[in-house]
Here is the input.
Amino acid sequence: MKSGYPIELLIVDDDQGDIDLALELLQESKYPLHIQAVTDGEKAIQYLLQQPPFENAVRPHIVLLDLNLPRKHGFEVLNVVKQDPYLKSIPVIILSTSALDKDILKSYALGANCYLTKPMDYNGFVQVIWSLDNFWFTSVQLPQDE
Here is the structure.
């Protein structure tokens, strides 16, 4: 990313409390972020494909994706991203309460770039979000807009 440009982050999570907490924590990011959030898998796909009501959605540089979503499962969202020629270069970080091997393996098989288990306690959640900031938003070279 070029200095001064905000990172476009899409959060896909059906837990509004987790979204709100992530937004609050990410306000302290070392890098400028522009964050959008959707609460179900169908809206995530519409957003990513710029379908109504998201025709003017900005292509995210990174997606933070929960798996257990209403309307479309996170695996379906991940599959859409990684099968679409325009979207497949976007890093997708899975942040799910599931620690099941089958979910982890399937996520990576579908092309997830990272799998994190969402902690159930506040301090653990804070640490995960800060680790995202320290690694993905500060150290990693994210793909530029095409």
